[in-house]
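User: Fold this; tokens only.

Assistant: Input:
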Amino acid sequence: MQNYYPEGKLIEKYDNKSALRNMDSLKSAMQSGRILEAKAIVCDNDHNLIVELPFCKAVIPREEGAIGISDGTAKDIALLSRVNKPVCFKVIEASEENGVILSRRLAQEECMENYISQLAAGQIIAAKITHLEQFGCFVDIGCGISSLIPIDSISVSRISHPSDRFSNGDDIFAVVKSVEGGRVSLTHKELLGTWQENAELFKQGETVGGIVRSIEDYGVFIELAPNLAGLAEPFENVKVGQSASVYIKSIIPEKMKVKLIIVDVFDSPSDKRINYFIKSGSIKDWYYSTDSCEKRIESHF
């Protein structure tokens, strides 16, 4: 079975470049039904996408631009937003007389039938961040087909906006929460480790880096890792989003608490690199909480 990837994953592959080399190689790709990728460079007045190939310019007609465009269930922004980005497609016409005509819709329909419709709850998949909103992040899970990760499913450590954790274009992993009527719901926090797994990365007495996530009357919450935060004593002139140097006063598994002392805070670009504890396979049950803690955080698929 062919693998289906978020858009942008094929464009630099040798096989993809070879198929786009000339008219003959493109005809061969059309006959075999291959999914290819190239960059969309213009969306014209009629909302047709113009795609740049090494030997010519090709057209994705508006109604072939995405699933749902022809019946109005998808908006034209789905086409406009692809300009200057890779798009996937199947070749539906390749001739000197009529030019090259492509279909992104057909590639998406194949992806839906052969891949997305067969996904199951708990399955770990690759995804690509395409858009960030206050309520969550949209990701490409294959051939430009979109799914949402709600903000509260991104990590256990609370964030004020998905941009605290991700940037557009990031390649990530996600867990399928459910598949209903062709819509895929995703979650992410289960891949970032349990409390115990994260706590074992730190030791009492160390001074480490963190990010200020919340300021309360009783203290300051500092994120040490996406799934681990500790509480520091109150500190003057601290702001949410700042970087911090913190001394680890104690680590208490039975209460899932890390007590900290702030050494310094400063403005610095946050490090958004994510340490995945799991990247493949599937998850049935996930228990974030320690066995000895009364507070339960868990997921079941």
